Amino acid sequence: MARSTVSAPHARPNVLKLVPTTSQPAPAEFSTLLRGEAAAISAWSTEWNARRFASHLVIIFLGAGCYGAAMGGWRDPQQALFVAIKFPLIILLTTLGNALINGMLAPLLGLNIPFRQSFSAVVMGFAITSAILGAFSPLTAFMVWNAPPMTAQAVSLPVYNLIKLAHVGIIMFAGIVGNARLFQLLVQLSGGHVLASRVLLAWLSGNLFLGAQLSWILRPFIGSPELPVQFLRDGALHGNFYENVFNSLTHIF
Amino acid sequence: MNENNPVPPLISQTDAAQRLADKPNPPLAISPSGPRPLGDDPAERVPIAHAFAAIEALLRQPRRLLFQLRQPGAGKLIVGMLFVAFFCAAVYGVVAGTFSGGTQLWAAPVKIALGLFISAAICLPSLYIFTCLSGAQSRLAEVCGLLAGLLMLMTILLVGFAPVAWIFSQSTNYIGWMGFLHLAFWLVATLFGVRFMKNGFSHAQAKSQAGVNVWIIIFLLVAVQMTTALRPIIGKSDTFFPTEKKFFLGHWFDTLREASENNGTAHRY
Fold first, then answer.
1. DSSP characters for chain B?
2. How many distinct structural domains can be found in chain B?
3. Which domain holds residue B222?
4. Is residue B269 part of a domain?
5. Does residue B170 sit within a domain?
6. pLDDT confidence of B82, banded at 50, 70, 90?
């Protein structure tokens, strides 16, 4: 069923235009999302569509879940299952935990979009990131499969650092692309780069701040050969990411 | 909040026009030089009926709220805004109290909400004086309205930060860190609140913003001292009020020193 709607009803007048929001099949919408077709994605964000929202959640669970499985698979199959659950959970909890403040910051910084639209935009950004992670998961799995079994000895080898660096690089790449797409959407909604940058920076700061702590609580991910396979470490809620960084810095200096 | 913010069509133009037709038009708050006069958009002249509409207006249509605060009979709106601010401060206080639990679950909200309102009450006379000294054409009711707007925006932003604060409350024992986090959230929320208030004063034909800037520093100092005067807010204590008087800087240094001596787990603030 084809229909048309006005994109971004609360956007600046200079970006108001009619955008056809044809209800596409899910794979077509998926490629539209990945291509970052700002006009179409902007129109999606203005209207609530439960099916589309569910499809974004599925992308997050599948993409981040597959990558998590590949990441934890080096330690143990059970660890792979745990990380496959925990990775998407971090994304969803970060989105939910910051939903309120992100929804408030957008209009306060000058982008007058409804709460639902800001939430939907952040979910779409994470869906793109998760899709990229999902695409990298076979490569990661292959890399891990080629690595020697995770033993105390293997951890001291360069391969351990190589795998860690590969994870950092892939997650960073996925995060950058996801946020670049989110930025394009914000530019479309706000009609200007300055405002879009401001909102993106505010959202990104909050998401990184909370996301880092949630990752800390839900550790381990890669796992350690000397420690048992666990969903959460004993005392997961003792201490926080930033204290740990601070303590590490004080030990160094 | 942005002066150039587009006004979202929260209320249809026909609805707004119908409501306006039913009651006489309030006068425009005109400032001949400076920002666009308040009320030049019909949507800004639509009355704010209840507290939820005030929250919505504060976030998305601050000019509408500023215009309504200048109208006769704005007292009801101001009372509603103060009620929202008190409620939101109490909600954030409960979250802050979860760090220690027990009696702090009720003591922290009481102290945060009361502390905020006492700080505002202490600073209100100086705000009015500074406003008048700067040449602004503002009545006391308008100044009260802007202060209520500052408190409401601050506290609803704190409620927005509450889930993050709760997660950290549950995952650390280090009181210095929690104190820093709450102060950081409070500071961000206050900066947005202050921006709203300055936006309001920019329509009052003030010759200078210097007086308001000085008042902002005073307000910040009073509020941080209030957290020390009403301690403990995050940690535990045998007494509701402190038995020793301190300035906030001295108290912060003492807390950090105690925390490091007790391996970072001191429960007193």
1. --TTPPPP-SS-HHHHHHHHHHSPPPPPB--SSSSPPBT-SGGGGS---SHHHHHHHHHH-HHHHHHHHTSTTTHHHHHHHHHHHHHHHHHHHHHHHTTT-TTHHHHHHHHHHHHHHHHHHHHHHHHHHHHHHTT----HHHHHHHHHHHHHHHHHHHHHHHHHHHHHHHS---HHHHHHHHHHHHHHHHHHHHHHHHHHHTTTT-S-SHHHHHHHHHHHHHHHHHHHHT--SSS--SSSS-SS---HHHHHHHHHHHHHHTTT-----
2. 1
3. 27-261
4. no
5. yes
6. very high
Q: Do B168 and A11 touch (CB under 8 A)?
A: no
Inter-chain contact B171–A9, Cβ cutoff 8 Å?
Answer: no
* Tens of pLDDT, residues B229-241: 888 888 888 888 8
Q: List, for chain A, all residue ranges whose pLDDT scores fall below the cut of 70.
A: 1-25
Looking at residue A71, its pLDDT comes to: 93
Has residue B138 got a pLDDT over 90?
Answer: no
List all residues of chain A from 111 to 140 with a beta carbon under 8 Å from chain B: 112, 114
Contacts of B1 in chain A (CB under 8 A): 107-110
DSSP state of A76: -
Task: List chain B residues with CB under 8 Å of A119.
Answer: none
* DSSP letter (8 states) at residue A80: H
Non-local CB neighbours of B206 within 8 Å, separated by 6+ positions: B131, B134, B135, B136, B212
How high is the ipTM of this complex?
0.71
Q: Is B16 domain-assigned?
A: no
